[in-house]
Amino acid sequence: MGAAARIRRDVRLRAVRTQRAPLAAVAGHVVGGERGRGRPRRGHRNCRGDGGLPRHDRSQRRASAGVADPLHGGDGAGDRAAVPGDHRPRRPRHGPRRAVPPVMRRLAVVLVALAAAAAPAQAQPPAGVARPANETALSPIDLGAALYAGNCSTCHGVAGRGTPDRAPSLRDAGAQAADFYLRTGYMPLNHPDEQPKRGRVEFSERELRALIAYVASLGNGPPIPTPHPQRGSLNEGLRLFTSHCAGCHQIAGQGGVVTGARVPPLDQATATQIAEAVRTGPYLMPRFSDREITPSQLDSLVRYVQLTQHPQDRGGWGIGNLGPFPEGMITWLLAAVVLIATCMVIGRRLGS
């Protein structure tokens, strides 16, 4: 070691000895009554006069007192002060975790309940009807019985006997009523008190035939009718529709509202469904027998209804084919616009 290096070391040692008093006061304030390793024994001092403190403790406590550390070759400006409580104690790796808030617990319970409720719904068929697992291996009559048990027996009872205040018996409904209600989407219903309305057909063609055949086998009901609208007369059909149907369905077959029910439009009804509705009388509609409307009259009635589905608007815009009501509204609306425009023109001319 050179002479210059020894001189610098001696200067630093003397500076440390002159600062022993403030460092000892700071060390006593920070350490307090701490016992254990690193505390100097009574009456013992090391050769540097630091009271036997470890090197890292001496540096931090000097910095906290605002005194430069000459052994580190700095003036204390760039060193971080070791303030008590500045460094948080390390948490144990496998220590106790923070408790989950009650709100998060309730939310987790709700999510689990929703997932449990959604599981059975996802297990059901997409169409919302119950189907047997071995559907392809069943005969048509067995398939119809299985479909009836899973989708109809809750309201119509075992073997179509019906249930009081819920649904009628299907013993004498026959294939006619079953075909109408199933192919129009009127059945199955979500609730027995709900009004049937046209919707999506829930069954495939094979399932429809099997279920209709099973209902027909329960009794001696009528078969599916086969109308021949091409044989009918439009004039007779108009007369029959006006006297029996227009009071609810309107003369244009667009439906409406009556007391306690909504009257459906007939724009999507097929010829077979029109004949089935006349003979069956779905919901609040009256039922017409062969004596009230003969088969030939039924052909004329079906032909007229088909005409209302595709009317010939010879006068131009049909305005929904609802009759004189929308035509009068449009007329008054156009007349009001023309009247206001005429008044504005007259007012400008008089003003000029």
In short:
The protein has 352 residues and is an all-alpha fold.
Structure description:
Helices cover 47% and strands 2% of the residues. The protein is an all-alpha fold and 352 residues long. The protein has a two-stranded antiparallel ribbon. It folds into 3 domains: 3-72, no CATH class; 130-223, Cytochrome c-like domain (Cytochrome Bc1 Complex, Chain D, domain 2, Orthogonal Bundle), CATH 1.10.760; 225-312, Cytochrome c-like domain (Cytochrome Bc1 Complex, Chain D, domain 2, Orthogonal Bundle), CATH 1.10.760. Residues 33-51, 66-83 and 119-127 have low confidence and may be disordered. The protein is built from 13 helices and 2 strands, in the order H-H-H-H-H-H-H-H-H-H-E-E-H-H-H. Strand 1 (256-258) and strand 2 form a beta hairpin.
Task: Please specify the SSE layout and strand pairing.
Layout: H1 3-18, H2 20-31, H3 55-64, H4 102-123, H5 140-151, H6 153-156, H7 174-183, H8 205-216, H9 234-244, H10 246-249, E1 256-258, E2 261-263, H11 271-280, H12 295-309, H13 324-351
Antiparallel strand pairs: 1-2
Helix pairs in contact: 2-3, 5-8, 7-8, 7-11, 9-12, 11-12
For this structure, what is the CATH class of the largest domain? Answer: Mainly Alpha
Strand order of the largest sheet: 1-2
CATH architecture label name of the largest domain: Orthogonal Bundle
Which geometry do the CA atoms define? flat
Computed CA radius of gyration, to the nearest angstrom: 48 Å
The main β sheet shows up as:
2 strands, antiparallel
Overall tally of domains: 3
The end-to-end span amounts to 117 Å
Average pLDDT: 78
CATH topology tier name of the largest domain: Cytochrome Bc1 Complex, Chain D, domain 2
Spans where pLDDT lies below 50 across 5 or more residues: 33-51, 66-83, 119-127
Number of strands: 2
* Helix/strand order, N-terminal first: HHHHHHHHHHEEHHH
Classify the beta-strand content into a percent band.
under 5%
Number of helices: 13
CATH homologous superfamily caption of the largest domain: Cytochrome c-like domain
How helix-rich are the residues, as a percent range? 40-55%
Task: Give the class from helix and strand content and strand pairing.
Answer: mainly alpha
